[in-house]
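Supplementary Methods, section 5.1.

A reviewer requested that the exact input to the structure prediction be made available. We therefore reproduce it here, unchanged from the version used in the analyses.
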Amino acid sequence: MKHLSVRPAAAKLMISCEAFVAAAVLGVVLFLNFYHSYNDGILYSERLNQMKEVTTQLFEGLNDVLELRWADARSHTNQLMRSGIHTSQELYQFIKEQEEVCDMPQKGTSLVAVDTRGRYYTSSGAMGLTENINYFFDEPEHVSFVSSSLNGETTNIVFMYRLSSPMEISDGDDRINLMYFGTVQAMQELGQYFNCKAYNDNNSVYVLDQNGSKIFSSNSIELISGHNVYSVLRQMEYLHGSNFEQTQQELNSNGIAYSNAVLDGEEYYYALRHLDTADWTLMFLIPSSYVAVNTVNLVDTTGSIIMTFAGVMLVLCVGFVYLVLRSQQKEALRAERNNTRRMEELNSILEAKNEQLRQANTEIENARRAAEVANKAKTTFLSNMSHDIRTPMNAIVGIADLLGYETESSERIKEYTRRLQNSSHHLLGLLNDILDMSRIESGISSLNLEKLELSEQISQIETIIRTNTRERRQQFEIRTRMIRHEQINGNGTHLRQILLNILTNAAKYTPDGGRIIFEITELDSEPGYAEYQFTISDNGMGMSQEFISTIFSPFTRAENSVTNKVQGTGLGMTITKSLVDMIGGRIDVQSEPGKGSRFTVTLKFKANENERSEINGMLMIGRDDDVTVSAKAHGVTPETVCSVGAAAELLSRGAYDVVLITSGICENISGDDISRLRGASEKPVKIAGICSDTLAQRFQETLDCAIVVPFFWGKLENGLADENEKEKAESGSALSGVRFLCAEDNEMNAVILEANLKWRGASCRIFPDGKSLVDYFAAADPGEYDMILMDVQMPLMNGYEAAQAIRKSSNPDGKAIPIIAMTANAFSDDIRACLNAGMDAHVSKPVDMSAFEKTVRSLREDKKRLVQRCKSDRSTYADSFA
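The structure derived from this sequence is encoded token-by-token as follows.
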């Protein structure tokens, strides 16, 4: 194994050497880049400084010369004013004498006069109208411009002063009014002041007007083409982060500016200077190759030396790395031969291990398949077990119910019947617990989501628990807090099972006359979700901390003289914890012996968006923050008052749809108060009250809607619905007059089913298998039967096949007639299979006739609404052609 480390070591050394070379190259590149940037900045500053020194001298020299020319123009103007000339000939003679006295022709200068009409005069006489008359329009005190028309063909610069008053002279019969007088200087005579010896006369100087137009150029070769210099400067490529706009701003602020740019591929430095003695701008332009030449040569020489040194060091580094890698390569080759031999040995060992791994994988795969077969067998066993036990249980429960209907039985027979009913329901509960626990442990139980109405779930739970608590005179309260969402997506069976298991235990282990409080609170949650905290507390016997630590373990029960009298499997809390975990919730327990227990379950559901209420105005008598929160969640903001008198006054002044009396006020209100409220409103108003079950019966005739606590917004909406429809729906048994077609292969169950339906006013025809029912239904008259009750496990044709055949039947009722599965297959998978086969609902055996009636009522109402909708659609369709 020692030889195996040689090659990795060599590879690491090679990587290190390569990294060193790369770092050295990168360091050199970075250094040269920094050096170049640094030198570029230093050279730029040095060139600007040198250029400032040179141009300052040149600009000051030009400025001094121009000041002298202005002084000459002033002197000659004063002499003209004192000359006392009266004719044009005297003017010409005066000009000629002044030019000779001052030796002007040799200096390239001359004198010129301009009259009020823009005509100019020299020693040669009247020369006509000047081309530069625009300079005299505003009659400035002095004027200066460059012209090629005032004195010959050369370019001249003119310096003129305005006379203190026009001088009138005669020219024959004509009168001349002289206005301006001054000197004309040939521009070539100023050439010595434009050139710069520091740059060997390689510079160019331009004289520009205020807009940047060229007035004069010192070079015979134009470096800047075009008439406007500023336009060219603006289009140049600027260096060192500058631009023409910045340069122009600096010129306007300081009177002088410098910049560096590229024109036609060549780099230039230029300076702009406003003249103090004329409305001109001087531009000094020089190629960069002539600026700070010695400094540039020094920097270039230094850079060459540094680059040469860096190259030598880089070559030495590469050479050193090469020698090291060469040595390591020889060592690696020697180690490679040793490693090859060793790898052959390892390959043999590895092949043997791979063979063992393949065998292990084969065994694992066989075990997985066996587990799947066993799991499937367990699922089948549980389903069959549930069916086979529930079938005779259905008969026992059914017979017990039939015995309970016999009013002529003796009291002893009735007592035996009640005990039989209780024992059969308890046995069914034990069966459900054991089967549920088995499915959870097998991972078979699934979470099927459906639309739930929270108030309906709580109502079902209350109905079951209230029966137990009344028998034991226990005080059972349900409270709601901050409920904003009542429509959720979840598994209703699991939700009810969780809460019923805890509440059932609370009722079992709380003594007669005790108190149980069930509180539902909606917590804050992210949008689109509703999180509820269900708290169940009692003042029962309580539990020790030791027992609480094992309460969720299977078959765990507290052992004492009291609990031993309570029947149960010890699986309820285990199932509850498993279901809470499956939903993704949390359950906490607090308890002390002798002081009671407190269970807190927190569950989160996906919330459905609340439908906006049709209530336009709501008046609430009494303050209740929980009701207010629920109302606002449905788009209603109630107005709150504290007394019936205040409510009556508001009703007389405003329009309200609903008056809601809170529970605290409802306990002290009378029928006269309700009549007073109705009389105060100008329009019909519906009055609802939140009250106990006892008060609800008392106010049944006076209130439009008596909401038995706990309050849910859905209760209010449903309670305010059409009372006639409600009374009609709830009067009598839902089964009265219903004609059923049934399939049941068990003769005893068939007898019990027929008796139960007949006792409730329904009629039925029962067939022993699915095929007989399907054949009979195909030949039946349309409308002859209202519903079909379908067993699942039957000979010839099972319930799934029969439901599918009915949906495809030639009988026109086949597509819409409600089909209810009435089977001992009670698991969620079985329910889903029934619905997928085309059935409308599922009722598990043993049949709870109350739950069965609710199912029938719900299906009949759904069918009625569908018929009404179809009639409405046909009416609308007909109206469109009317």
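The two ends are 100 Å apart (CA to CA). These observations are discussed further in the main text.
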